[in-house]
Amino acid sequence: MEDVSIVGLDLAKRVFQVHGATSDGRVVCRKKLSRGQIRAFFEQLPPCVVAMEACATAHFWAREISVLGHEVRLVPPAYVKPFVKRQKNDAADAEAIAEAASCPTMRFVEPETPRQQARAMVFRTRDLFVRQRTQSINALRAHLAEHGIVVPQGVWNLPGIQRLINEAGDDIEPLVIEMSRLYLAQITTLSAQITSLEAVLKKEAAQSDASSRMMTMPGLGPITAMAIEAFAPALTVFRKSRDFAAWLGLVPRQHASGGKQVLGRTSKMGQRDIRRLLIIGAMSVIR
Q1: What is the 3-state secondary structure (H, E, C) of 240-285?
Q2: CA 13 to CA 180: how far, in whole Å?
Q3: Residue-wise over 256-266: b if at least 16 C-beta within 10 A, else e?
Q4: In 10 A of CB 8, how many CB atoms?
Q5: Overall pTM > 0.90
Q6: 56-71: per-residue pLDDT in tens?
Q7: Of 74, 39, 80, residue with least CA distance to 57
Q8: How far is 198 from 192, CA to CA, in rounded Å?
């Protein structure tokens, strides 16, 4: 194992696939490891490059393995797929990861810190609760419409819905009123949780110098600032603002051949959450 220069590690919940290769691409080892064997394996391995796909658990393992003296490279899954040969299995994936990470022009993902992941969790949880609240409101509106009560969209119309339910009287089945109050209680709980999470985001943003500077820009509040800090790499890696826009996906699709360039619609590649928040903030400033 002393000749290993790069290891491709295919992550999973319990069974991990390892592909070790030399600097010239010769295969040294292929083996399966359980979750408990990962640290022991890399502790015995001389310092080398360890490549993984940039998935949900990759950042944790990147921190754990880098402490052991290895250089960790996280490859975007879309860049690994072209290197998979024919059949799709764990061994082929591990080999493809190692080959992709060996390319000199490959782009890598910067491992996130526990602080970044914690802030991302707060943001994702708030986003989930907002979607659940919207889903509950729309479900309640749809059920009430079946009984002749049509109410407008928007969370700000909840007091009117509450008033209509309280004043319904005998015109509506009591069971409908009971279920509607159950929906309203759920919506109220979600709204309280969203408000609490927004307070956490504002507190975190106030403690960060970078977020404080970003919030001085028009249309950019604490939620957007924290999303940029949680999901974006260090802004120093971008040479100019156009590079950051390209990383977000705010660029047209390009189809060029024979020196003729055709630019299409705006690409949807990149970081969706930051892009969505920046577009919403820009529209609020324009309006």
Answers
A1: CHHHHHHHHCCCEEEEEECCEEEEEEECCCCCHHHHHHHHHHHHHH
A2: 41
A3: eeeeeeeeeee
A4: 30
A5: no
A6: 899 999 999 999 999 9
A7: 74
A8: 10
